[in-house]
Amino acid sequence: MNCPHHHRIFAAQPRSYRDLPLRLAEYGTNYRYEQSGELFGLMRVRSLNMNDAHIYCTPEQFAQEFVAVNDMYLKYFKLFGVEKYVMRFSTHDPSRLTGDNAKFVNEPELWKQTEDLVRDTLKKTGINYVEVPNEAAFYGPKIDVQVWSVIGREFTLATNQVDFAQPRRMGLVYRDKDNTEKTPLCIHRAPLGTHERFIGFLVEHYAGNFPLWLAPDQVRVLTVGEDEPLVNYARGIVQELRANMVRAEGDYSNDKINGKIQQAELAKVHTMLVVGARDLAANAVSVRLHGKGNQGAKPKNEAIADILAAIRERRP
User: Fold this and answer.
1) Residue 204, by phi and psi: left (phi above 0), alpha (psi -120 to 50) or beta?
2) Which of 93, 139, 195, 314 could bond to 165 as cystine, CB 3.0-4.6 Å?
3) How is the chain split among helix, strand and coil, in percent rounded to 5?
4) Overall pTM > 0.90
5) CB 191 within 8 A of CB 78
6) To the nearest whole number, what is the mean pLDDT of the chain?
7) Is the pLDDT of residue 220 over 90?
8) 88: closest CA among 156, 144, 149?
9) Is residue 81 classed as helix, strand or coil in its secondary structure?
10) How far, in Å, CA of 290 to CA of 215, rounded?
11) Which residues pair with 250 in a beta bridge?
12) Distance CA 148, CA 262 (A)
């Protein structure tokens, strides 16, 4: 992971309380050598990409920074239409701080302090959460955001972790108002988890029926026949859509129009624009939506404007 890299950036120069909170973010590739049998499609890979970040702050700043991270997660959930979720608050087990069965850093006072901070913050903000003992990271308590796919499968989508151990182990300090050196708290945050897993979750969440703004195949233009003027008209529509950054394709083959529509439906193309001789004469298109059928004829310019607006506004 990139945690040590960010810690070394923090330690590269003297820090004051005036420098905090310090937020370091990095979109990068990480590698994890998974054990045999643990790889699982996009859900668990060896080469993974993350928008990972570390926030260094004082205990007084912690609540505000922690809430800001959770608010960012909620913004993403609204954007992607994730309505069912729960924050899983993972705490430590005091009996596993020492001995052969040790699992967590042996800092009982810091465990109590940080867990109380997280718990109080969750309660004050009214966030839906469940508390799970013995599931914390070895260096501090954490929040795992649990979501469910359209078929009811549970995923960990994001994480928000408190770390009081690594900053101390790596000698990270800042000079406080009283001119004494203190160790900052560190928040590890990855709002969408690994992006491979997030894409896999979205496929499950939408069951492949993506909204227009997310759909891999946003628009397909289908011709009724293969007359040259008709095909040229359809190609012009595709070119105009692509010029506006729309993922558009054309089907100008001599297949029957019902067959073309069926192929587009099976591919879960979000929007189909059907053009025939009558549409050509009227400078119009017939609009079809995946799973919703024929939406009627529209002037070409109006149909294209509707598509661009739907993408720009990220409509469901």
Assistant:
1) alpha
2) 139
3) 35, 30, 35
4) no
5) no
6) 90
7) yes
8) 144
9) coil
10) 11
11) 221
12) 30
Q: Tell me the C-alpha distance between 46 and 39, whole Å.
A: 8
C-beta separation of 69 from 53 below 8 A? no
Burial call 198-230: b when 16+ CB within 10 Å, e when fewer: bebbbebbbeeebbbeebebbbbbbbbeeeeeb
- Cite the DSSP H helix spans in 191-296: 195-206, 228-243, 257-266, 277-282
Distance CA 250, CA 59 (A): 58
The helix (run of H) or strand (run of E) holding residue 110 is: helix 108-125
Interval 221-251: pLDDT, tens: 999 988 999 999 999 999 999 999 999 999 9
Q: Which of 82-96, 205-219, 252-266 has the lowest mean pLDDT?
A: 82-96
User: Please, what's the b/e burial string for 71-85 (b: 16 or more CB within 10 A of its CB; e: otherwise)?
Assistant: eebeebbeebebeeb
Between 238 and 98, whose confidence is greater?
238
Q: Token pair for residue 305?
A: 């404007």
| Contacts of 272 by beta carbon, 8 Å cutoff, 6+ apart | 219, 220, 221, 222, 261, 264, 287, 288, 289, 290
Could you tell me what percent of the chain has a pLDDT over 70?
A: 100
- The sign of the torsion formed by the CA atoms of 102, 104, 109, 115 equals negative
* Residue 261 near residue 275 (C-beta atoms within 8 A): no
140 Rama sector, left if φ>0, alpha if ψ -120 to 50, beta otherwise:
left
Q: How far apart are CA 197 and CA 216, in angstroms?
A: 17
Q: Work out the pLDDT band at 252, boundaries 50, 70, 90.
A: very high
Q: State pLDDT tens for residues 1-41.
A: 678 889 999 999 999 999 999 999 988 888 888 887 878 77
Instruction: Look at residue 171 and tell me whether its pLDDT is greater than 90.
Output: yes
Closest CA to 133 of 93, 80, 172: 93
**Spatial CA neighbour of 201 closest among 147, 163, 243, 249:** 147
